[in-house]
Amino acid sequence: MKRARHASGQRSAPTRWNHLRKILVPTDFSKRTARALPYALDLARQQGAEVHLLHVIPPLEGDAYSPLRYSPEAAVLHQRPDKLIYDLLASTAETHDTEGVHVELVKQRGMTVAGTILDYAQRQAVDLIVIGTHGVTGVRHFFLGSVAEEVVHRACCHVLIVHERDDAEPLPSDVRRVLVPVDFSPSSPDLLRQARHLAAAYNAEIDLLHVVESPSFLAPFAGLATLHDLVPDLHEQAQARLERLLEEAGGPDVPARVHLTEGRPAAAILDFARQHGADLIVIATRGLSGVKHFFLGSVTERVVRAAPCPVLSVNTAGVPAAGAPQRAALEAEQPG
Fold first, then answer.
1. Between the chain's N and C termini, which has fewer beta carbons within 10 Å?
2. What's the rounded Cα separation, in Å, for the pair 25 and 121?
3. pTM
């Protein structure tokens, strides 16, 4: 393990899941971020990727994000923050099995935590950011407050959210069922392709889910309890679109089932994940009820915060539709 190299690189679109090379794990040395590192190491071992363990040093050493608050004796001894942080990074890595994985220990100074994480990810051409968060018991406080929200919102790569819970969530090598909720937005085919690559890597199965939303405006109308009452063949149309998406999206051939349910999207997705034992939810950063930005929509926000398993936020921004010349060029650039 050593300090980070300062190689730079940029990417016009997020890397395919089967070509992960750099995984970034931001940490504030708290319990809520501890689950992210073993998850990233497990992924890196399977993918042959390297892990960058990053701590951001804000302008004020005594602020809420400073590691000095976890080691009050350091303030008494006047230990240099840079040395303390490097020692904390090293001890954090040493508490996990890093065999076979190159781990970079990185400390970066920056005005904002999220901005520094995002800048580092872009400069280092990071393929995946793995963030630890509070789970359902701490929905009011996401990893460092609004940091995770901003990272997922603005990241140029995929973001994997791992919850802090008493019961350990399955590592990637234990993933057997991958839930992929889609709303038939333009990002849906690429989302399914990404999920297929992931499922193929772990011999997992895919549950492709569409939720037919029950709009609240129907409630005042007598006899109209669901949208199906208003559009009788809606379910048949949605079922046909799911089957077509499964057939036309492309990607590795993995076992997959299509599911159609009705209700409020976030609640329906979460209920399905719990009832069917999903090990991972793969969701797009755009889409889902036409939300332009991932965290501006209550559907995906609720899914990420209350999910019973890790959630992979797939960045499909800037990826052309299937069959487009730009997409063919992008895939041709990927290493074989």
1. C
2. 10
3. 0.76
Is 171 within 8 Å of 130 (Cβ atoms)? no
Dist CA 197 CA 182 (whole Å): 17
Please give the Cα distance from 297 to 303 (Å, whole number): 10
The answer to whether residues 114 and 131 touch, using CB atoms and an 8 Å cutoff, is no
Residue 177: which residues within 8 A CB-CB, separation 6 or more? 204, 205, 207, 276, 277, 278, 279, 280
Low-confidence ranges of the chain (pLDDT < 70): 1-18, 32, 60-81, 134-146, 165-170, 172, 214-232, 286-298, 316-336
Dihedral of the CA atoms 218, 222, 228, 232 (nearest 10)?
-130
The b-or-e profile of 247-262 (16+ CB within 10 A means b, else e) is eebebeebebebbbeb
Joined together, the tokens standing for residue 123 give 């400069």
E strand residue ranges, 68-176: 103-109, 128-134, 158-164
pLDDT in tens, 102-151: 999 999 988 888 899 999 999 999 999 998 875 443 334 444 446 777 78
Comparing C-alpha atoms, which of 142, 92, 153, 90 is closest to residue 118?
153
